[in-house]
Amino acid sequence: MKKTIIKIVTALSVIPLALFGFISCKPNEPTKPVVPVNGSILLSGFESEAEYLTMLFTNTIVKVEVNENKEYITEGTASAKLTLYGQYDYANKYYMDSPFYLLPGNDFLSKIDFKDVKGFSVDIYNAFTRPLQFMLSFDGYTIGYRTLEKGMNHLTFALDRSEAAHYVDLEFIKTIGFLVEGRMTDEEPAVLYFDNFIAQTDSGEYDEDLYPEIEVLNEFTFDNPLETKSFLGFGLSSSRLLEPRFEINSDLRYVMTGRKSMKITFMRNRNDTAIDSLGFRTQDNVFGNWASFSDLSKVKLSYDLYNDTDRLLTVSMRVFHSPSDSLVYSKNVLVAPYSWTDPGQTGVLLSEIQAEFGVDEFSAFSIAFEVTGLQESGSCLYLDNLKLTVIS
Ligand SMILES: [Ca+2]
């Protein structure tokens, strides 16, 4: 049996993936069938190191290996052996849950339109000493929870598309998330084998009426470099030269939507006592006229932010009402080290903003983000997918 260690990704690592060499390589040809077989599309056969490199393991500590022991294979000639170390919680009482992600739109997983998908199945062999809790999601939407019993688990998940379409763009799925319960500190790392991840389709026979119309009103996806010019520093600064800097990022580890995101770099102030201006904001009037919306309960403001530091950060999103330049809303979220914000926490309906502050007329706005917890000069965040969407 050939076991091939491909990499250990640590939560603290900012080393480019290219530095994690392979000890040996299997053939690199993508193996995905594009045409559904009996309505089934193989999303991942977990066959090779090259395929694993299209996945995202950076939010946990895990060893990923190609397994060729037939006992743990249900499709093709290999499965993925994951040894999940996890990362400590902040009090070092236990290890945190271990996530990893498939990123549709690559050579191995080309399917990004999931409107024809009515369910999923995946085989997971649990070689740990006890059952583990597991969750499948895409773009932050929970598809389902399951218990991984010891031994082989053939899991199936039904997808409620009419519900999911309220939260995700089914025509453009960006991430598929696998989340495994973390171990206790006195337990060995959990070993799991993943294989045969399949989407069940209805071959295009879906009802268009099932899907709410989702219209994107304003968005910053940063596929256009000029979008960085719409952002400014926020908060006191000791020098214009030390205000946050904005640049386009194309490293896909820090991209949630499309191919680009915006990197924000913070500096120490001139007294070297703290980080200079602690936030960033959109320029005035670039985020649309909210007064034109007839139903604010159907308009959602949301964003994704990656914390590329080793510290737990608090990010406060603030909405300003331009005529009076007054703050009308703020919402705090915690962002774990080297992690994305939880999509379930960053979204807010405009009706919630209106209810909290009783603003009747929205006319022009700035969205600001203040960050608490930054320490080092050169600390970076990545912003993606700041947008307003209408859900009908
Ligand atoms: Ca396989």
Helix content: under 10%
Q: Round the Cα radius of gyration to an integer and report it.
A: 22 Å
Distance between the termini: 54 Å
Q: Tell me the fraction of residues in β-strands, as a range.
A: 35-45%
CATH class division of the largest domain? Mainly Beta
List the ligand species: calcium ion
Shape: globular
| Class from secondary-structure proportions | mainly beta
The tally of beta strands, per DSSP, is 24
Low-confidence stretches: 1-28
**Number of helical stretches of at least 4 residues:** 4
> Largest sheet, described in full?
7 strands, antiparallel
Structure, described:
With 392 residues, the chain is mostly beta strands. It contains 4 helices and 24 strands. Helix content is 5%, strand content 40%. The longest helix is centred in the last third of the chain and has 8 residues, at 350-357. The protein is globular, with a radius of gyration of 22 Å. The relative contact order is 0.14. The model is unreliable at 1-28 (pLDDT under 50). The structure holds calcium ion.
Question: Which descriptors would you attach to this protein?
Answer:
disordered N terminus, 4 helices, 5% helix, seven-stranded antiparallel beta sheet, 392 residues, binds calcium ion, Jelly Rolls, 24 strands, globular, single chain, mainly beta
Short description:
With 392 residues, the protein is mostly beta strands. 5% of the residues lie in helices and 40% in strands. The longest helix is centred in the last third of the chain and has 8 residues, at 350-357.
